[in-house]
Amino acid sequence: MVFSPVAKPSCAALQFAPRETWNKVIVVTLQALQTAPATTGGDTVRHDWTVEEVEALFALPFNDLLFQAQTVHRAHFDPNRIQISSLLSIKTGACPEDCTYCAQSAHHNTDLEREKLLAVEEVIAAAAKAKADGASRFCMGAAWRGPHGDDFAVALTMIEGVKALGLETCASFGVLSREQARQLKEAGLDYYNHNIDTSPEHYKEIVTTRTFEDRLETLEHVHDAGLHVCSGGIVGLGESQTDRASMLVTLANLPHQPDSVPINLLIPIPGTPLAEAAVERPDPFDFIRVIAVARVMMPKSYVRLSAGREGMSAEMQALCFFAGANSVFCGYKLLTAKNASPGQDRGLFDRLGLKPM
Ligand code: SF4
C-alpha cells in the first residue's frame, strides 16, 4: 500500500498496515502538529506570551505537555543529540551580591573556600581537559558584581586562550556595561551567561543588591554586542507556579530569545538563607514541566539541564531530555557544587542513545 499525506488510508486499512506505514502516519501527524498554531506547540517563535497562557501549559496533563514539547523539539533539533558544556569557577567566593541561594556570596556564612582569580595557564589546561572529555563549550564563571580592572584584562586573555583551543567560549562575570560586552566579543567570546533567576515579582525575595532591570540591561548589552545570550533561572526558590510562568514569559518575550536557557534545580547549600529557610523541594514532575514549557515557548533555544542534575536519577534526567532539554554541563564540579562525573554521563548517554553535538 502506498501512503501519502494526500491519499490517507482509512483506519480499517491501517489496522493491518505494516510497521513502515504506521511510521509514516506518525511522521505526518507530527508534521501537522509542528505547523499548528504556536499555542499548541507550533513552529513560530513568539514574543507575546502571557502568564495565563503559560499557566495553561503547566496545567496540561503531563503526557500531553511532554508530547507537545517533544514535537516542538523534533521540529528544531535532532532529539538524539546533546550539547555538552563545561563550567569552571575562575574566581571563587567573596561576591558582593547577596543572592540567597549562592554559596559564593560574602553575605552568607558557608564553608566555601575563597580563591583568587586563577592563572591563565590553569584555565587553559582545564579547558583542554574539558575538550578531551567531550565538551564543545567552555564556560568561565567569576564571583564578581561585574568585571573590573586588571582582573578583566586577565579574563580577556583566558577567553582568547580557550577560543584558540577550538572550543566555544562562555563567560559569566555579572553585570556588564556596553563597552565591556564589546571587549568580550572582541576577545573571542561566543556566549555570555546572565540568569534572571526567577520572576520579576519574586526577584526581590532572592536578590536585593542588584535589580531585575539591571539584569535585563546586561542582557541587552550582551545581545547588542553580537554575543549569544545564555539566560535562564532556578526552580526551588520558594516560587509559585505563576512565578515560574512569569520567569519563562520574561525570557521568551525578550526581543531575541536567549540562545541558551539553563534551567537549574536549587541545590540547598548549608549557610545560605534559602537552605536555612528549608524551602520545600519542588515535585520532580513540576521541574520536568518547567523544562517542557521552556521548550514549547523557546523552540529554537538550547534548554540546558543545569545545576541540581547530580541529585537526579537517570530516569528523571531521561524525562528532562524527552521534555526538550538538549544541553548539560559535564565535569565533576559546577562552579562550587558537585556535578555528575563525565563517566556517569557517558554511561547515561549510551543507555539513551544520545550523542554529543
Ligand atoms: S550567584 Fe553570582 S552574583 Fe550571586 S552571589 Fe553568587 S556569584 Fe555572586
TrEMBL record:
The residues the record assigns to binding [4Fe-4S] cluster are: 95, 99, 102
Q: Which SMART domains match?
A: BATS, Elp3
Q: Does the keyword Transferase apply?
A: yes
Q: Where are the transmembrane segments?
A: none
* Pfam families, per the entry: BATS, Radical_SAM
Q: In which pathway does it act?
A: Cofactor biosynthesis; biotin biosynthesis; biotin from 7,8-diaminononanoate: step 2/2
Could you tell me the EC number(s) of this protein? 2.8.1.6
Q: Which UniProt keywords apply?
A: 2Fe-2S, 4Fe-4S, Biotin biosynthesis, Iron, Iron-sulfur, Metal-binding, S-adenosyl-L-methionine, Transferase
- Name the cofactor(s) required for activity, per the record: [2Fe-2S] cluster; [4Fe-4S] cluster
Per the record, the GO terms for biological process are: biotin biosynthetic process
Drop me one GO molecular function for this one. Answer: 4 iron, 4 sulfur cluster binding
Q: Which residues bind [2Fe-2S] cluster?
A: 139, 170, 230, 304
> What is the UniProt remark on how the cofactor binds and its stoichiometry?
Binds 1 [2Fe-2S] cluster. The cluster is coordinated with 3 cysteines and 1 arginine.
Task: List the catalytic activities from the record.
Answer: (4R,5S)-dethiobiotin + (sulfur carrier)-SH + 2 reduced [2Fe-2S]-[ferredoxin] + 2 S-adenosyl-L-methionine = (sulfur carrier)-H + biotin + 2 5'-deoxyadenosine + 2 L-methionine + 2 oxidized [2Fe-2S]-[ferredoxin]
Q: What class of enzyme is it?
A: transferase
Fetch the CDD domains from UniProt: Radical_SAM
Purpose of the protein: Catalyzes the conversion of dethiobiotin (DTB) to biotin by the insertion of a sulfur atom into dethiobiotin via a radical-based mechanism.
Q: How does it assemble?
A: Homodimer.
Q: Which family does it belong to?
A: Belongs to the radical SAM superfamily. Biotin synthase family.
Name of the protein in its database record: Biotin synthase
Origin organism of this chain?
A: Magnetospirillum molischianum DSM 120
Q: Which gene encodes it?
A: bioB
